[in-house]
Input
Amino acid sequence: MKLYGNSASPYVRKTLAFAAEKGMALELVAAGMGGGPPEFRLASPFGKMPAFQDGDFMLADSTAIITYLDAVQPEPYLIPTEPKARARTIWFEEFADTMMVATIGKMFFNRFVAPRVMGREGDLAAADAAEATELPPILDYLEGQIPASGFLIEDRLTLADLAVASPFQNLALIGVKPDAARYPKVAAHAAAILARPSFAGWCEQEFRMFGVERA
Output
């Protein structure tokens, strides 16, 4: 099975981690930002990361890919079967994929992707505004949602944790960390999930690839 994209994308990274936690091997094929093999555009007609190929089956979108992987190999149950827990898991994935990435994406694109990847100046005012006004309510919400166990759902690892943690690596790549004094649960959750083997190797590779020191 092949995953097309770049692990610096929170969606790609989340999908890689989900597969790893399932014990499923995915081959990451570099693609995106206008590049990649022809199969990438066949799987993702609009060029969005990630895209996926399993034999002659092709698919795009991280949630769709994860749904497929979960159906192929249900255990361990990273998407709970109990109705309320299942629904809340999907909510947290949606929250991460939309609200978190929308805000963190403004910071990451303008401070990192534009200057380092595209070779042009980013909109630093937009990045600063997102950090000052949009990020705190997201962190406030998460701080109130994380139980004492450190896991968002059923006091165990689920897709919710993987989805929420992934964008924090993008913050780390631009030297931003949640204030552990103001957001102790958020800081601990992000650190613990990103330290898992399913994430850690990709995160270390990103730091080395882009020459970024850990904040």
Notes: The chain has eight helices and four strands. The beta strands are 2-5, 27-30, 51-54, 57-60. The domain at 83-210 is CATH 1.20.1050.10 (Glutathione S-transferase Yfyf (Class Pi); Chain A, domain 2).
